[in-house]
Amino acid sequence: MVTGIAAGLLLAAGVATTEAPEEPNVHPTLPWVLTQLVPSPELAGGRRVATRFGLRWQVTPLLFSWGVHRGLSPWRFFVAEPFVRQSGSIELYFTPEVFPGFGSSFGDVWMARTGLRTYLPLVAHGESLSMSIGASHFYFEGRSGAAFEAGVYTFSGIVGVQITASASPGPFAWIATLRLRYF
Question: Which contiguous run of DSSP H or E holds residue 12?
Fold first, then answer.
């Protein structure tokens, strides 16, 4: 009888519930699109050039999270909530980057990068501190190359620093990005 009373009190307090979690209503909205237009500043340098200023945007068409509640779908398309990404996930991404004043043609100024990145929570399920590691393919100045990256993030992943390194032929051996991400 004591067990039944305790269970009743827990249910009344909202501590124990048998309701299944609801899928969040996450979809692209106009405010979301506008925040995605805000670029992240970066510095690039290396082999045959002085350090250059650049801007990077990111699109995440597909994300799988193992940090969400088991009753929810781990898949996200284009829009991923901060907790879903930073609590443990792997994403397929595309980043256009521009280096103003670098060259005279479109292909000398813009870089296209596709890759895979995994996020790992470090403190408070990634909301306070998380890290990422990844690999990418880039196309710049008419050449393809490969790069590796590592990053650390805070404030639910809104602010972070990423370092990208490449041994592939091309002007940049490294890129440091102050990542600003407004999910």
Answer: helix 2-13
pTM for this prediction: 0.83
| pLDDT tens, position by position, 5-40 | 555 554 555 555 567 788 878 888 898 889 889 999
Consecutive H or E run containing 24: none
Query: Which residues neighbour 110 within 8 Å (Cβ) at sequence distance 6 or greater?
Result: 96, 97, 98, 140
Residue 52 is inside which H or E element, if any? strand 52-56
> Which residues have CB under 8 Å from 12's CB, separation 6+?
none
Alpha carbon distance 97, 39 (integer Å): 9
Q: What are phi and psi of 8, to 5 degrees?
A: -65, -40
